[in-house]
Amino acid sequence: MHAARHSSNAHAANRGAMPYPALFKRLKRRKPLRLRCERCGRTCVEEKPAPRSAGIEIITSQAHNKVAAVAAAIEDARPLSMRINAWEWRWPLNTYRERDANKLSRAMLDRLAEAERMTLDQNREDLAHRDEVRARYAELEADCDACISLSAPAAAPLGAVSTGDPNCTVHASLLGIPAISLPMLQDDGLPLGLQIAGFVNGDAQTFAIAAAIKPLL
Fold first, then answer.
1. I want to staple 178 with a disulfide (CB 3.0 to 4.6 A). Which of 87, 132, 138, 206 is the partner?
2. Residue 185: pLDDT band by 50, 70, 90 thresholds?
3. Which domains does the chain possess?
């Protein structure tokens, strides 16, 4: 770890700038002053008194235009992300299929079929749309310290068939932002995560905010 860090720092010095600025900061707990709360199929934590009593303001889409705009922009995050992902998997998957299609799952074969129906222009449109969504989300950084939501709409499902509904987390992948799940809530006696999402290159700050929020719940 020390060698890797020294190498990266030396490389950055040669270029005159630190790469991945959030990666090389010492973590300090930082209480956020303002949080954006996002609903994911049910009430998040805006009704819990602890964050407010600690002097943290929580803003929602009902009262803040920028939050409402971001909520609308990420509404189709899952299908958009899935299309981009399918296109990027097109070439490895078609190679695997040529080697032995029987070793690919039905889900992977379906994803490959979807990708082969897409055109380059469609992929370019999806990437442009993603850039627009990322730009809209980045505007929130001037108004709040982090964004909070549930990590899932409900507790984990029974059995091993599915890991649950990804709709509450897929936007973090689409936006390219750090997101931390704190297992501080409960649903039907099972743990349910509170998701703390930050901003691009804000990994250290997101961890610091999560550390400050954890004792409040």
1. 206
2. confident
3. 28-216 (3.90.1300.10)
